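Q: What does the predicted 3D structure of CBM-cenC domain-containing protein look like?
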Amino acid sequence: MQMIIRRLGLVLLAVPTLYLITSYGIGHVGAGDFIDTRRLIIDIHPDSWAALDSDDWFQLAEQAQELGDSALDQTYTLQALAANITSGRAMARLADIRLQQGQQAQAKQLAQLAAQLVTAEIETHLPLAFFWAKVGNNAEMVKAWDMLFIREPSLRNTLFPHMRAMAINPSTASLVDAFASKPPVWWGAFFNYLATDAQTTPSLLEHLHGLRINSSTPIGEGEMTAYIKRLVKDKRWVEAHKVWLSSLPKETSAYQELVYDGGFEGAIHNTGFDWFFERHAQIKLKQDMTFGMEGQRALKISFNNSKHVKFQHLWQRLLLKPAHYELSLRVRADQFRTDGGLQWRMRCAEDNQIIAESPVLKESTPWIAQSVAFDIPPSNCETQLLRLEAASTYAHDQVFAGAIWLDAIQIHPLASDKP
């Protein structure tokens, strides 16, 4: 027993020198780091000390902790370290024991060392997160969270609300800001959580988005889309449009008219103020080449006439100012059959009021031009919805067969009015 005690004493005395060997556990991460190969606790007997490894001793320490035996908890934790001086979780456990004993300075030193001893063990970073929370060291706590978010994504839903609380607290906000400026792999998931949760304030999202804009790491499509969707949901139309415009590649500048990409040339869809293509089993929307088109492509909508469909599957959100306008477009219908037909409708998004309707398309036709004049009212119509719809509200009229082609959809102000 005296020899064992001497060995444990040497472990504690050697703590400062362990910084020299942390590379042993850093950078050597393999499949074994994520597989629990420990024996069952029922098969571990502390009397057979020579046969026990560090994992065995650690399990005994956990059992002693559960039983409330702090003395055995410490003894077995020290044995785990004696068997493997690079065990991060044993070092983290010893840090917590020292904290309970009132030795906070040594506890912090052990916790810092534990974080450097391992890069893959979740069982180290989770207790470290709790440890740093106990001592009120938020900077070290979020470092542990960072590792947990990477190694154990299932913990994100539990910890993201706490990360948000830190982001809105002036005393801890800088810790979250640092991640926004240099985003880790989990940042997109965190921002998506913020954007989709109604409890997140618009000011926080705007602040973090501003940090991301100025970051050297480009904003991912998912992150940008989540922010635009939140702005739209909050009906912050001008801000949403501004963010959406800033997200567009430079090569799309030619498409940025009052109707974005009215010729269906581009590849950006379903984000903010571009075309939304909604899926349906009986409908296929495809940008393709065809005769008589303007530019390089037009949009083909193919219909399967097996069942009726209330067609509203192609639309674009607009931000037109009150004025007098004209909507113009080109359309072709191939072997197109329907009783009710299709037509373009312009609606005020606020109250769904129809402010313009194009002529109804009911039969096959070569390329033809359609146009309709309309007015944006001065109030309650800040944003509009331009949508191709089934003209009839009756199900028996909402059966379509064949295909139509669309091209050159444009909106222009009339007379001297300007948008």
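A (community wiki): The structure tokens above were generated from the sequence. The first strand starts at residue 275 and ends at 277. The longest helix spans residues 54-67.
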